[in-house]
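Issue 218. Parser rejects a valid record. Input:
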Amino acid sequence: MGTFGTGPFSSDGARNFLEELAARPLAQRAAELERLLVRVREQPDLLGREFFPDEVVAAAAIVAATLPFGQQFAEDLERLVANDLVPEPRLAAPARELTKIARAALLFVAGPDGAWHRGWTTETNAAAARDTIAELSQVLAAGAGLDDLDRIWNDAADYGVDGEVPEGTPPGVEHLASLLRVYNCAMSGGLDFALEVNEPFRVVRAIEAMRYFGLPEAADFLADVLTRSEKGEDPIRCRPTATSMPSWTTVRTR
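Output the parser choked on:
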């Protein structure tokens, strides 16, 4: 009798898939995963004939294991390999480019009405199987989202260095660019350096950006420093502290 566990790598079908993937050269494994995931998207009628739900769930979990929030799936793979249950199937590098297609394939086979949820013999197992998919879907969703956030952040940082933003840039990105320009200067050389290399209007833009991102205390602090500097008074000659400058975790979640 075959094994049908509720984890992403618990069934015979999933482990057979891992063995097949492990037999591929390391550099070809990501392409093999992509081939399966693309087939799920483009030929969904082949489900149950050319590919099976446990294989697709395992493939999605391998992708998730390479992502920042997928440590639990990486640990599952490590245990399987350490206990000689499967040969080493992991990828050579993070597979963020596969996160969106992996999540789409996962939702096809394991969405609310997906084939993955059929046939569990007890409610306990059915609930555990649902939990597996929920965790996996969250990791993949976060991984896909990080790509978009990284692009936004990098664009804003580049615009901040240039000092200008292209016409039509979203307001949030424009504010972030203004904030990063002054912030990076302050963190590298102190507030006095940031005031020296940035014209007052750029500092004002950074202050406005802080208010835009809901950081009024940091905005008030920088506004006070700018005012004293313009009056010829000695600004604070120190590197900003955690209480005087914004938390980037806060900015990135707004």
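Fixed in the parser; the record now loads. The two ends are 51 Å apart (CA to CA).
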